[in-house]
Design a protein that fits this description.
There is one protein chain. This protein is α/β, with parallel strands linked by helices. The chain has 2 domains: 93 residues, Leucine Dehydrogenase, chain A, domain 1 (Rossmann fold, 3-Layer(aba) Sandwich); 124 residues, NAD(P)-binding Rossmann-like Domain (Rossmann fold, 3-Layer(aba) Sandwich). Helices cover 41% and strands 16% of the residues. It contains 10 helices and 11 strands. It has a 6-stranded parallel β-sheet with strand order 1-11-8-7-5-6. A 3-stranded parallel β-sheet has the order 3-2-4, with helices on both faces. The protein starts with a strand and ends with a helix.
């Protein structure tokens, strides 16, 4: 039986560590404050925002919530971001994606002060990650590194394959695995002989966005499999990019969906909010 990598348990550990740090900062007279902006009422976004507020309340971080109507203009949103950039009491700014189609996401991400970019999406944060400078790291890939380390998975010297090349998961994931001395291959929709490449992986990170695409014939015996995907199947049950029932028997460790990577994203967001104090 493979080791089930429990994201709920590991994210709870991280949140408790953050809670202690927040309490000790409070004793020194420093509060941590996160501003969360949501434009429109996308149901999935509303759930995420709700979870972020709950996590803030648990660790003792103050949260400011800006729920803007769907028809908010780009100018109005940029003006709010500018106002929050200039508020010293706000340490982190998070704009919930996706945004309505009339708003340019890139322009919004670039408007956030890099010292308050707790999502780690600003080009300056990404550049800092690439060259090993201090800065914020995108929460999902940072969470995956913590899952591996805290589950006793050695990354150094291992053959690591990432499926997916998005700016939010695939690319930063590859850089973080490199930083931990893994040997990294990034694959994507144009990769030839994908199965051949993925079967070399000691650590396989799957962020391809297709439900249950990865079956056991993509996976080397004894590999560690991290599933970033989240979907609802035909029975409305949550599933990932990996066919869990098929793959689990051949790997040494695997993340479930739900309860694997998902909870880590919010835990690392809380960690980044505390890190913002150091960076500022």
């Amino acid at each position: 039986m493979p080791q089930i990598i429990d994201g709920k348990q590991i994210s709870a550990q991280i949140k408790d560590e953050v809670k202690e740090k927040v309490a000790s900062l409070k004793e020194q007279g420093t509060t941590v404050c996160l501003a969360v902006i949501q434009v429109g009422a996308d149901p999935a976004s509303s759930v995420y925002v709700g979870n972020k507020k709950k996590a803030c309340a648990y660790v003792g971080i103050e949260s400011l919530s800006y729920e803007l109507p769907e028809q908010t203009s780009q100018e109005e949103l940029l003006s709010l971001i500018d106002e929050l950039n200039n508020k010293p009491e706000v340490n982190g700014i998070l704009v919930q994606l996706p945004l309505p189609s009339h708003i340019d996401e890139d322009a919004v991400i670039q408007a956030i002060d890099p010292k308050k970019d707790v999502d780690g999406f600003h080009p300056q944060s990404v550049g800092a990650l690439c060259i090993g400078q201090p800065g914020f790291v995108s929460c999902t890939p940072a969470g995956i590194i913590e899952l591996l380390k805290r589950s006793g998975v050695e990354i150094a010297g291992k053959e690591c394959v990432v499926i997916g090349r998005s700016n939010i998961v695939g690319k930063p994931m590859a850089i973080l695995l490199l930083r931990e001395n893994g040997t990294v291959t990034v694959t994507h929709s144009k990769t030839r002989d994908l199965k051949e490449v993925t079967r070399r992986a000691d650590i396989l990170v799957v962020a391809i966005g297709k439900p249950k695409m990865i079956t056991r014939d993509y996976v080397k015996e004894g590999a560690v499999v991290i599933d970033v995907g989240i979907h609802r199947n035909e029975n409305n049950k949550l599933c990932g990019d990996v066919d869990y029932e098929d793959v689990a028997p051949v790997c040494s460790a695997i993340t479930p969906v739900p309860g694997g990577v998902g909870p880590m994203t919010i835990a690392m967001l809380m960690y980044n909010c505390v890190r913002s104090i150091e960076l500022q």
